[in-house]
Amino acid sequence: MSRMLLISNSGTPFLEHCGEMIRSFLAGCERIAYVTAARLGDEDERYGRAAKALAGRGVETDHLKLDIDAVRKLDQAKAIFVGGGNTYALVSRLRQHGLLQRIAERVRNGMPYIGTSAGTNIAAPNILATNDWNVVGATEFTGMALVPWAINPHYQEADPAMASGSETRDQRIAEYLNCNFIPVLGIEEQTAIQVEGGKATVVGQGRARMFVRGSEPQWLPAGTEFSLH
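Structure (tokenized):
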């Protein structure tokens, strides 16, 4: 049975902030494999910052790079943390190295999974609800299908990055639903979805919002439980 913590945020400040949540989720697993494949150009720097933040919370890390040792490290890992960056780069690089479905199989067989931002997005059936640009020219968009909805991390009902009169995040999601029957779960910052025992729970300081084709969006405050089915 899958155990996952799907976090909207990324970056070291949030890791420091949510360290207790992560340590509680890992439940005694003191060492994890940390994947930086979503980063374009700063993998070592990001790993160093994340490893330091997690070590401060009692969680040691191994850097799972996409090299000849990647499969061995994944097979030996007791838990895995997939960090943020560019979702298209992440899913393309993991697939290229034969790791995308290998991670999914390990998670389905009980290995704890933590994702932030892009790492959260790839847990979905597809990555088309990401906010990222497809700068790597990806042509395959399927994710790991560990949850039954697409995911929009960093969800904001009123996105300040959009100029007045520009399309909103909700409009973008509506466009997605015009072309896809898979629902979309928007996750606000400082918020995560904890998946365990066939159900999902909204945890953290914010909310999630479920978008289903043909229905009004539904807010899910922290503490809300809902079935994966």
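The domain at 4-227 is CATH 3.40.50.880 (Rossmann fold). The chain has one domain: 4-227.
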